[in-house]
Amino acid sequence: MAIRIGIFGYGNLGRGVECAIRQNPDMELVAVFTRRDPQTVKTVGDVRVLPSDIAPEMKDRIDVMILCGGSAKDLPVQTPELAKHFHVVDSFDTHARIPEHFANVDASAREGGRVAVISVGWDPGMFSLNRLYANAILPEGTDYTFWGKGVSQGHSDAIRRIEGVLDAKQYTIPVEEALRAVRAGENPTLTAREKHLRECFVVAKEGADKARIEREICEMPHYFADYDTTVHFISLEELKREHGGIPHGGTVIRSGRTGAEGENRHVIEYSLKLDSNPEFTASVLVAYARAAYRMSLEGQCGCKTVLDIPPAYLSACDADELRRRLL
Amino acid sequence: MAIRIGIFGYGNLGRGVECAIRQNPDMELVAVFTRRDPQTVKTVGDVRVLPSDIAPEMKDRIDVMILCGGSAKDLPVQTPELAKHFHVVDSFDTHARIPEHFANVDASAREGGRVAVISVGWDPGMFSLNRLYANAILPEGTDYTFWGKGVSQGHSDAIRRIEGVLDAKQYTIPVEEALRAVRAGENPTLTAREKHLRECFVVAKEGADKARIEREICEMPHYFADYDTTVHFISLEELKREHGGIPHGGTVIRSGRTGAEGENRHVIEYSLKLDSNPEFTASVLVAYARAAYRMSLEGQCGCKTVLDIPPAYLSACDADELRRRLL
Questions:
Q1: Contacts of B14 in chain A (CB under 8 A)
Q2: The dihedral of CA B222, B228, B234, B238: what is its sign?
Q3: Percent of chain B clearing pLDDT 70 (strictly above)
Q4: Contact assignment for B258 to A282 by CB distance below 8 Å
Q5: What's the whole-number mean pLDDT along residues A100-108?
Q6: Are A266 and A139 in contact (CB under 8 A)?
C-alpha cells in the first residue's frame, strides 16, 4: 500500500513536493491544503485542494503531512499543531531557533504518538549531515560552508524594501580563491567578505535615484555592508527573462589531519548545484516523509532530525537490495 | 567511562586505527592483537601487543574489536569468529561478496548478542552512504563513481607479479573531461577507458626486457587492457622517494532531474582527497566503533552496515549539542 501524503501550503515548495511525489511510486498524494480559496490554487496534476482548517479531519486518510510554509511565521505554529494528528516533515531553517522548535514539535508529536522530522532540506539538511559525518571522521580539522552561486530570497527581499526599487534578485557567489585555498587544505581563516560576493540585479522605478539605491544596498548592515557587493540596474523585462529561476547550491568542506604527528591531510567535500532550490528541498522532504512513515511502523514517536535517521529509511529499496546495489 | 577498543591485525590500517583513537578522548586502546611475534610489532604509542589467539580471553576487557586484516582471506574468517565475543567493525571491501559476509557475520553476532558493522571505510562506506542519499533524493538520475588520483594496491601488486619487475606503484587517475561532463549534468555514458587512466611507475630488475614488461602490463586483462595505461621505468630510489605515500580519493556524483516535466537539473557531488588511504579508512572505522558501542547499549545486536546507522551515533557529542552546532 502506498504511503499517503498531504501537502500543507502550496507555493514553490509545495509545488515541488507534488512533482517529487510523482517520481516515487510508493507514495500517493491525497490532498493539498491551502489558506487561500482552494478554487484559486492551480496544481500540476489532478489533486484535491482543501482548505487548511479541515486538515485534522483527514487524519485517518493521510499518513504523512509535508509542511511547505515559511520558517518565520508558519512552521513554528503549524508543525506542532499538525504533529498531533499526522506524521510530519518540515524544512524549518532558522538555525538559531531549531532547539526551541524541536522541543515544541517533540512535545506535540509525543502527545499524538506521531513521528516528526524537522529542518529537512539541504541546509539545514544534507549539509548538516555532511558536517556531522566529516566531524566524526576527522575530529582534528576545520569546517567551511560556502553558499551559491544562487539566489538568496532574504537578500532579494531586503533590496525590494528600498525606496525606488521595483524588483530585484540577489545572487550569493562563493569567492573562487577562498574555495581554492580550502580545497588545497590550506585551512585559511576567512572573513565574510573573503568567502562570498553579492551580486544584485535591480529594477529601479521611473525617475528613482539610482546612486542612492546603490549606496543604500551596499551600506545595508548585516545583509551587504560586510561583503563586496555589485549592483546592476536592468529593465523589468531583462530581470524576468534572465533572472527568473531560483537556482542555488553550495559546498561543505572539512579539512583535517591524521597520523602519529598529524602528518597526513584529508579534504572531504560535499557540493550541490541546483537548478531549483525549492524543488530540490522538496525532493529531500519527500525522502524523509518515507523515513518518518517507516519509523512510525516501528512504533517510534517524537521529533527527529536528519542526524537521527538511519540512511536506509530514506530509500524505497529493501536492505538486501541496498547492500547489493549501493554498498 | 571510555569505550575500550582492541585492534586485530597491525599493518598500515591497524596503525591508522591506533593514531585515530588518540584523536578521540572518549576511547581507550586496550590492546593490539597480532599473528606475528608480539615482540616484533612496533606500535606508535605505548600499548600492549598480544598474540591473536588469546583475543577471546579479553572479551570482558574490550568493548569493540576493530578488525584490520585483508578482505581476501582474513576478514571472511575473523569477523564472524570475533563477533561471537566482541562488538566488531571491519572494512570488508569485496563488493560482490558483501551479502555472503553479511549473512555469516549476522549469524555470529546474534549468537553472541553483539553488534557488528561491516564494510566500513570510504568505498564501501562514505561513498555508499552518498550513493544512497543521492538516489533517495533524486530517484530519476544517474550515478557516477570516479576513483583517484590514488594508489591502487591491487594494480601495483599485479605489476609486481610480472617477471623482471622489482617493485611498482600504480596510480588510478580520473579522466578530467569525463568529470567535467558529469559535473555539467550532461549524463554521458562512459566506458572504463573514458573514466580512468592508469599510470605505472616500475622498477625493472637489472637486465630485464623493459619492452616486454610494458607490453605485459598494458595487455593484462581486467587490470589494464581496458584502460589507457602509461608506464614509466624509474630507479628504486626514485620510487621510494617520490612514490612512497598511499594517497587516494575519488568522487561520487549523482545527476538528476525534477519538476513537472523534468525541466530542472541537479548535481550532487561528494569527493575525497586523502593523503593516506589507510589512515582515513581507520578514522571511519573508529567513528563506527563508537556507533557500534552506542547501539549495543540500546540492546541491539546483529550485523549492520553504514546504511543502517543513525548518523548521530558516530559523534561523541550529544544530540542537543549536534542540533545546536551542526544542524
A1: none
A2: negative
A3: 100
A4: yes
A5: 98
A6: no
